[in-house]
Amino acid sequence: MKQSIGKKFTLCFLFIILAMFIFLNTYGKNSIRNEIIQQKKTSLYSEAELICKKYASDYYVNDLSLHSLRRQLIAIDEYLGTRIWLVNADGTLLCDTRNSLEDDQKINVKTLDSSLLTNTNIENLSLPAYFDEPVLSVTSSVIVNYKVKAYVMMFLPNSSLTDDTILVTNVINICLLILGLVLIILFIYLYIITVYPLRKLKQAAIEYTGGNYDYKLNLKSHDEFHDLGNTIEYMASEMNNQEAYQKKFIANISHDFRSPLTSIKGYAEAMLDGTIPYENQDHYLEIILFEAERLNKLTSNLLSLNTFDNKGMLLDISIFNVNEIIKSTVASFEGTCIKKKIKVILEFSEKDMPVSADMGRIQQVLYNLLDNAIKFSHSNSSIKITTRERNDKIFIAVKDHGEGIPKESITKIWDRFYKSDPSRGKDKKGTGLGLSIVKEIINAHNENINVVSTEGAGTEFVFSLPMAND
User: Whole-structure pTM over 0.70, yes or no?
Assistant: First the structure.
């Protein structure tokens, strides 16, 4: 069964808190008790040594009465909460802070437990006749003139140790509870800044998968999720544009194929059924040939672009004089220029302009640019082609004085099938792919092409090529 990240976070959080409580109240509690016992042993032994040196020794050296000594020990008992015995060297119990001993009540401690005087501390000592519960016992020697005169024994009930353990455990539990509350608040905060954005991103992915590219994430945070959301929204926008482009692409292909095919089919049928007289058929055969050439050019351009998209453009780099390529390209348009009364002016800063590029592809670029320049130039106008050297680059410019490109169309002319005239009436022969191919070729050379145009005044295309090393 699939579990959400939020549920996993919750279960993980609860498991950690539960594990901490269980650990603290089992193994942790025992560790705390053992630590308290060790601290009590050390503390009581220090107190016992102090009693031996400061109080009990006065009983043997300075003739302090047993009654006075007992009063002092009772005060210490009340302060520390520990029962204190003073035992003579032979084991006779001389003083008990919790019981007033008569001479006939004095006992020998050795008869109770032979290890009482030899062990400095004993845990869980059980003497039912004197203590209601097991106790912690600590023993220190009273030494006078390098001889053991007596022993000071201190007893702490186990219940006191248990109370201390419970107190420390409760304090830690309270701290743990506070920590848990802090973690809950932190968890809620983390949930808001992680799981909530992830759900929004998931919903956005679902919407975009369904084709709703206008769906907005509206993430309020300013972190990586916000950046990711912006990236996804940008991706959706690009997908939307791509989808619109594909629809337009198909519509343009359909239009550009349908028009010549309709003409070819119509004129062919008219000639077959005799609608067009035999003496007029040559004219219509020329139209059919013109449309067939247009279809052939469109197909070739589509295949070229498809190859660029799928495999990338493979360049056959060589060194050649770009001025000579320009001259040969211009020569191929000589008839068209004469017919339209267009003058092509060549302006080269140097006779030889060696470049390192794919000669065939660059000739294709020049052909497309010159074809466009002639197509959109007025009769009795001129086209200027210039080459300039600057910063190890050769810049080639093709400038006409024709119709120009509308300002709103400047950024779109590189799009496939784009034609600045929506009616398509000005360019019946064009496919709308020439400038797309030009852009692809120049980009493949890692160079740039720019356009400057004024509607009604003309257009200038400028592109660069790497200058060949001598």
Answer: no
- The pLDDT assigned to 324 comes to 93
Q: Please, what is the Cα angle at 455 between 454 and 456, to 5 degrees? A: 110
Under 8 Å between Cβ of 150 and 56: yes
The whole-angstrom separation of Cα 21 and Cα 179 is: 12
- Structurally, what CATH architecture does the domain formed by 224-294+300-309 represent? Orthogonal Bundle (1.10)
Mind listing the pLDDT tens digit for each residue in 208-236? 888 888 888 777 777 787 788 888 888 88
Strand-strand pairing, 135-144 and 147-157: antiparallel
For domain 5-163, the CATH architecture is: 2-Layer Sandwich (3.30)
3-state secondary structure 313-374: CCCCEEEEEHHHHHHHHHHHCHHHHHHHCCEEEEEECCCCCEEEEEHHHHHHHHHHHHHHHH
Decide which of 420 and 389 is more confident.
Answer: 389
Per CATH, the architecture of 314-466 is what? 2-Layer Sandwich (3.30)
Pairing of strands 343-348, 382-390: parallel
pLDDT for 312 = 57
Structure tokens given for 290: 């013109």
pLDDT of residue 258: 72
Residues 75 and 84: their CA atoms lie apart, in Å, by 10
